[in-house]
Amino acid sequence: MIRSQVLICGGTGCTASGSKFLLSAFEEEIAKQGLGEEIKIVPTGCFGLCEKGPVVIVYPEGTFYSRVKKEDVAEIVSEHLLKGRIVERLVYSDVDEAVVEEAGKHVSLNETNFYKTQKRVALRNCGLINPESIDEYIAMDGYAALGKVLTEMTPEDVIKCISDSGLRGRGGGGFPTGKKWSFTAAQPAGQKYVVCNADEGDPGAFMDRSVLEGDPHCIVEAMTICGYATGASEGYIYVRAEYPIAVKRLEIAIKQAKEYGLLGKNIFDSGFDFDLHIRLGAGAFVCGEETALMTSIEGNRGEPRPRPPYPAVKGLFGKPTTENNVETFANIPQIILKGAEWFASMGTERSKGTKVFALGGKIANTGLVEIPMGTTLREIIEDIGGGVPNGKKFKAAQTGGPSGGCIPASLIDTEIDYDNLTAIGCMMGSGGLIVMDEDNCMVDIAKFFLDFTVDESCGKCSPCRIGTMRMKEILEKITSGNGTLEDIDKLEELANHVKANSLCGLGQTAPNPVLATLKFFRDEYIAHVVEKRCPAGVCKALLNYVIDADKCKGCTKCARNCPVGAITGAVKEAHVIDTSKCIKCGACIENCSFGAISKR
Amino acid sequence: MKSLAELAAIRDKMKDKVVLREGSGDIRVVVGMATCGIAAGARPVLNAFVSKVAEEGLADKVTVSQTGCIGVCQFEPVVEVFEAGKEKVTYVKMTPEKAAEVVEKHLKGGQVINEYTITNAIS
After folding, report:
1. What residues in chain A have their Cβ under 8 A from chain B's Cβ atoms?
2. Which of A273, A430, A483, B53 could form a disulfide with A529 if both were Cys (CB 3.0 to 4.6 A apart)?
3. Alpha carbon of A496 to those of A157, A460, A492, A500: distances in Å?
4. Hey, are the CB atoms on B18 and A140 less than 8 Å from each other?
């Protein structure tokens, strides 16, 4: 009889920080102590707090161990599992003092600041079940929504339920999901398809990966429900080849579902047939765009095509197709089971439910958070994210990756939903949220994302192919100190043209990082071109290293460490940097024991 | 999969295995499992609680967990029962048989077995 369970995170983050060694270490140690009959080890998907990985949770106490090393395993087993003494030094407990006093030493995971305001719908099973076990998914009411749909509801009922819930596409566009399904359903019967877009390519975004890794069956179930509602009998999951764990777990999930008859012919004796296939993306960002994605599944070069016709009319293989993002699908089974009203009760007036964000950048708790729509950026960054580390000041949050914009510190109390973000010239995007502090140069950030889109532009249409390149050149001119005020205006004009004239979403959104930083941080652009100065001290060409003669003791350490011999000076006398030779590598700053060197 | 009943059967069979992770039941049974407790036979007591609670279908209501030394070593194995809004009950010198009885009468029936409590042992 199992009295205790040890959950070990097997998401990509924790696997990278060594969780797979923990698994075997726990197995060995538990066998050694003769606890094999009493303790069960469960590998799970992502818990969300990747910053503190590898993460181990012991139930029934719900003790959350963070940054567990192989050497800690013996202690956890002999102290906690055998003797019931929690290994306090490894426990993650970022909680308010009031909670500690009230609850004594038994602080559960849900009371920590990171988790307490989160509301997990799409991520509800992530970190809770073994993603490679269909039985555990079923135990958490898995496939009950599919059963309900096939035995009690008509396709029209299903679409109505999804429409009433107010669910909108989580891939970035925010198109109402029920409406999308109804378009495909309205097409004449015949071969139709369901496609799951798991080509998550935004730098810094990993929500979809975590769902696929932690709860792959919910995507299988949701796609089958979508197939029933829209009249499709086949589905494709287009997933990045760079997500090997997600691919493996999806394959296992599909195999298990087929064995149980939850995929295949005559599911639940309803006469409904549905089958699923996986296709791997080869790493092109543009394939996250729906028409390019379908072109790629068809075996062609991943390039977008003009819309209309929309995929609902003419999609994959020229047939009516419904395409949704992973996170959108992850909400579906819960909406069916708990009802449209339940889902619509969360969020704001026009954005219902929750949204998952991948928190990254200058933030204490890097990880995945799921919050109700309408939560303010301040709550996400300060309460859940634990704030900006090293006492630095929050400057801006970048949302939506290379297609998104940024929210400056002055708008930190913005309630996050689709419409509020659009209103301030930003966009929800797929959910990457990169936090930036005073050390980030906004012009450099814009250049970084533009670099990415220039690389990833497929080249089919000229506004995107040539326009983004010219924009990048202007940004390079500005960051190297050769820009003029006219360049800023030209950049803005060009950005608006690229936005208006590109063929697909990639080009239409590529100028967003530039436009948003121009809107909120124009003064930084001006500092670069007028004063030839980078206020954040990032753009190398605009920096000069200077030795403060009053602080310099003449120890010669900097001169000895300078790789290009740019520093001269006699012993015990102030040294000088020859700026014409200096390559701005920073070696002198690192080596100065007196803090006499600074960059300006 | 041909019917909802078939799905429900798998769910019920598996429910006990994941219910541990759903967190707090209304009642918490804590077994003292420090060295003294283990030496006095706390492990079979703990295991008896776990299996009896499952057997009686109380798994979603009762959380069985372990703790360190409770501090009354002469009375080990010691078991404490916490229930919201009620006073803590401390059972002493427990055995697997007594454990089964506690599940039956106290956890299920709501009747504290005074005979096994520490209050009785001291007075």
Report:
1. 1-5, 7, 38, 40, 59-62, 82-85, 108, 110, 128-129, 135-136, 138-141, 143-144, 147-148, 151, 260-262, 267-269
2. A483
3. 43, 19, 6, 6
4. yes
User: In this prediction, what percent of chain A has a pLDDT beyond 70?
Assistant: 98
Among candidates A128, A139, A262 on the partner chain, residue whose Cβ is nearest the Cβ of B14: A139
For residues A549-555, average pLDDT: 91
- pLDDT, residue A104, reads 44
Tell me which residue of B119, B99, B109 sits closest to B43, measured CA to CA.
Answer: B99
* Inter-chain CB pairs, A–B, below 8 Å: 93
Residue of A82, A85, A86, A75 whose CA lies nearest to A22: A75
Q: Which residues lie across from A280 on neighbouring strands? A: A239
Domain-embedded: residue A127: no
| Residues A247, A214: Cα–Cα separation, whole Å | 12
Q: Do A139 and B18 touch (CB under 8 A)?
A: yes
Q: What is the mean pLDDT of residues B17-23?
A: 67
Q: Provide mean pLDDT across the span B87-103.
A: 91
Q: How confident is the model at residue A404 (pLDDT cuts 50, 70, 90)?
A: confident
Nearest to A3 among B14, B50, B67 (CB): B50
Report the gap between the CA of A173 and the closest CA in chain B (Å): 34
Tell whether B58 lies on the interface with A, counting CB pairs under 8 A: no
SS3 A285: helix
Task: Report d(CA A560, CA A580) in Å as an integer.
Answer: 18
What is the residue range of A455's domain? 442-529
Query: Among the three residues A529, A559, A577, which one is the final residue of a domain in this structure?
Result: A529
State the total domains in chain B: 1
Q: Which two tokens stand for residue B79?
A: 């078991």
CATH of the domain at A56: 3.40.30.10
Amino acid present at B123:
S
Measured distance CA(A318)–CA(A193) in Å, rounded: 10
Q: Is B88 on the interface with A (CB under 8 A)?
A: no
Judged on CB neighbours under 10 Å (0-12, 13-18, 19+), A507 is buried
Distance from CA of A183 to the nearest CA of B (A): 30
C-alpha closest to that of A303 among A317, A285, A320: A285
pLDDT, one tens digit per residue, over B34-70 is 777 888 888 899 989 988 988 888 887 888 888 777 7
Among the partner residues B4, B21, B31, nearest to A147 by beta-carbon distance = B4
Q: Determine, for residues A83 and B33 on separate chains, whether the beta-carbon distance falls below 8 Å.
A: yes
Containing structural domain, residue B116: 27-122
- Residue B80 in domain: yes
| pLDDT tens string A239-261 | 999 999 999 999 999 999 999 99
Distance of CA A54 to CAs A8, A22, A51, A158, Å? 8, 9, 9, 40
Model confidence over A58-106: pLDDT tens digits? 888 888 899 999 999 999 998 888 888 888 889 887 776 555 554 444 5
Judge contact between A231 and A224, C-beta under 8 A.
no
Structure tokens at A211: 């769902």
Which two structure tokens, joined as six digits, stand for A157? 């009922």
Residue A554 lies inside a defined structural domain of this protein: yes
Q: How confident is the model at residue A109 (pLDDT cuts 50, 70, 90)?
A: low
B17 part of a folded domain: no
Cβ contact (<8 Å) for B68 and A84? yes
Domain CATH number, residue B104: 3.40.30.10
Looking at residue A176, the DSSP 8-state letter turns out to be B
CA distances, A129 to each of A134, A218, A416 (Å)? 10, 12, 29
Tell me whether B96 touches chain A (CB under 8 Å).
Answer: no
Residues A207-233: b if buried by 16+ CB within 10 A, e if exposed: bbbbbbbbbbbbbbbbbbbbbbbbbbb
Antiparallel, parallel or unpaired: β A56-59 and A4-9? antiparallel
Torsion sign across C-alpha atoms A464, A465, A467, A472:
positive
Predicted complex ipTM: 0.76
